[in-house]
Amino acid sequence: MKTKLLLLAAALPLAGCISFGAKPPPSLLTLDATSAPAVGADQNSAKTRSITIQVPSTPTAIAGGRVPVQATPTTIAYVKDALWAEPPARLFARLLSDTVSARSNMVVLSTVQSIADPSATLAGELRRFGLDATTREAVVTYDASLTRAGKETVEKRRFEARVPVTAIDAASAGPAISQAANQVAVEVAAWVAAS
């Protein structure tokens, strides 16, 4: 009995030290769309062109929740305490959808909705979505692949935006990457809207 009490007494101080997961950051990062469809605005694919925007593929370095930093041309680190609220590819696809819908007079359809509608398709690869320590910039690079409605050929174009950052930290990463992503989305919207 005395031995059990001693073991229990010894284990109590350790209870506060045990952790079953990483400590979450104070906040999670997301993107803020500078162009979005107006609330209550009607859209009809019978009256205007439509497009399906797929979630882009990504390299492993940016597929997860951490924010990558290109430390040298051949090494990548991650920003301390900076985590995305969801995978960057999904955040970027949603931003593209809002921007294309607001700026190109096109109806953005889901993959399921596009089965019955001969829409254009935008796919691609999100190549860079983070910070570059050597130039102190947020960098977003998107390789877009567009198949226009009724066509079988694929058009490809690379889009990139760079936004200066004052520091390589969580506070600077979110706003700068969001600004770069919006710049890319605006350029993509203009490209897909062109006949």
TrEMBL record:
Start and end residues of each ABC-type transport auxiliary lipoprotein component domain: 31-189
A Pfam family matched in the record: ABC_trans_aux
Native source organism of the sequence: Sphingomonas taxi
Keywords per UniProt: Signal
Entry keyword Secreted: no
Name assigned to this protein: ABC transporter
Domain of life of the organism encoding this protein: Bacteria
Stretch forming the signal peptide: 1-22
Secreted keyword on record: no
SUPFAM superfamilies assigned to the protein according to its UniProt record, in alphabetical order: XCC0632-like
